[in-house]
Amino acid sequence: MFVLWFCFAYFIDTSTTIFNIPLWFFLSGILFPSIIFFWFVFLF
After folding, report:
1. Which helix (H) or strand (E) element contains residue 16?
2. Residue 15's domain spans which residues?
3. Cα gap 9→7, rounded to integer Å
4. How many domains does the chain have?
5. Is the pTM of this model over 0.90?
6. Which residue from 41, 29, 38 is spatially nearest to 11, judged by alpha carbons?
7. Residue 32: burial class (beta carbons within 10 Å; 0-12, 13-18, 19+)
8. What does the pLDDT look like over 1-44, one tens digit per residue?
9. Rounded distance, CA 38 to CA 22, Å?
């Protein structure tokens, strides 16, 4: 699951560089929810 999520995040990161999407969109849309998700899973 973690590997799939990492590949998905890497794909989004490369697409942001290709399509010149702002970095805050990537951070707020993918990275921040993933940190909360894994933090919630590992704690509870």
Report:
1. helix 2-19
2. 2-43
3. 5
4. 1
5. no
6. 29
7. exposed
8. 667 776 677 776 666 565 665 666 666 677 777 777 777 788 77
9. 24
Encoding tokens for residue 8?
């998905």
CA-to-CA separations, 24 to 4, 16, 36, 37, in angstroms, rounded: 22, 10, 17, 19
- Name the 3-class secondary structure at 21: coil
CA 12 from centroid of its chain's CA atoms: 7
Whole-angstrom CA distances from 42 to 14, 15, 27, 32 are 28, 29, 21, 16
Distance of CA 38 to the CA centre of its chain: 11
